[in-house]
């Protein structure tokens, strides 16, 4: 047998299952008997350190309980959420790092898990929990639209589409299918493309509308570049869908383009 390696892991040292435990590199220590260096588990926080961040958490929760979200900055709201996801760590630096990276709360919650994990302190479990919050928020917005007359709830339509698509890193082509009262029947992502292109097939759009007995549709897609200005290809594609759908009794109310900081309506711009 060969010589024992100079570094070995302490067999008795528990390892954290994920990033909810301690994240810092574990310091090496020497055993008294052999002088070998072994990695020890991170020591418990000192009482003063524990009191510091636990006291901060209590104060933040009290402010939220007494005054609601208006009393808190965006990073503090994110901290409140991270308290539950990372129970044994000061989460303020992580919350600020997330906002620095993704710009807004919407950007944080809409970011892909792989990108979230590039922020120090965010591992797979926390990234998936953040995406769960995002999914719940989208479902809430969608439930507010279902059954309503969409054209009279236009601000909610824009809010929902922005929440669902603004932070996507690839183009998505989404369709809102409406009944004869212009109430929402279904909302479906028909195609997902690249960073600057999504293939759209007008016949498939109309076919799906007929399958759902929809009499009107609203087309929606996002521009990952952030600029919602419609391109010539966007305009031409929309006109092709209109020409294909009209003889079959399906109206195209609008085509909305979503960017990170706004949206564009082809109907509002009088491009269709």
Automatic annotation (TrEMBL):
Organism lineage string: Bacteria, Pseudomonadati, Pseudomonadota, Alphaproteobacteria, Hyphomicrobiales
Keywords associated with the record: Hydrolase, Metal-binding, Metalloprotease, Protease, Zinc
Record-level GO BP terms: proteolysis
Official protein name in the record: DNA repair protein RadC
GO molecular function per UniProt: metal ion binding; metallopeptidase activity
Any Pfam family matching the protein: RadC
CDD domains: MPN_DUF2466 (cd08071)
Disordered: region residues: 1-46
All residue ranges annotated as the MPN domain in the record: 150-272
Biased composition (Basic and acidic residues): 35-46
Family: Belongs to the UPF0758 family.
InterPro entries registered for this protein in UniProt: MPN, RadC_JAB, RuvA_2-like, UPF0758, UPF0758_CS
SUPFAM superfamilies in alphabetical order: JAB1/MPN domain (SSF102712), RuvA domain 2-like (SSF47781)
Top-level taxon: Bacteria
Keyword check for Lyase: no
Keyword Zinc attached: yes
């Amino acid at each position: 047998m060969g010589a024992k390696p100079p570094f070995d892991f302490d067999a008795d040292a528990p390892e954290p299952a994920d990033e909810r435990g301690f994240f810092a590199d574990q310091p090496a220590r020497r055993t008294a008997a052999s002088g070998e260096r072994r990695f020890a588990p991170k020591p418990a926080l000192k009482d003063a350190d524990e009191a510091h961040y636990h006291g901060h958490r209590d104060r933040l929760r009290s402010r939220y309980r007494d005054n609601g979200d208006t009393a808190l900055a965006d990073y503090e709201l994110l901290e409140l959420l991270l308290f539950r996801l990372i129970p044994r760590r000061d989460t303020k630096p992580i919350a600020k790092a997330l906002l620095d990276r993704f710009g807004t709360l919407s950007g944080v919650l809409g970011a892909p898990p792989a990108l979230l994990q590039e922020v120090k302190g965010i591992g797979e479990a926390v990234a998936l929990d953040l995406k769960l919050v995002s999914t719940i928020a989208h479902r809430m917005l969608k439930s507010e639209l279902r059954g309503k007359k969409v054209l009279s709830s236009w601000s909610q339509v824009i809010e929902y589409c922005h929440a669902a698509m603004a932070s996507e890193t690839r183009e998505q082509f989404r369709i809102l299918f409406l009944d004869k009262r212009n109430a929402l029947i279904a909302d479906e992502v028909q195609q997902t493309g690249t960073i600057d292109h999504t293939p759209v097939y007008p016949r498939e759009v109309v076919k799906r509308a007929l399958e759902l007995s929809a009499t009107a549709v609203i087309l929606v897609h996002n521009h990952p570049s952030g600029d919602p200005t419609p391109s010539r290809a966007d305009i031409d594609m929309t006109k092709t869908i209109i020409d294909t759908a009209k003889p079959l009794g399906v109206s195209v109310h609008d085509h909305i383009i979503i960017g990170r900081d706004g949206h564009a309506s082809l109907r509002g711009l009088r491009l269709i």
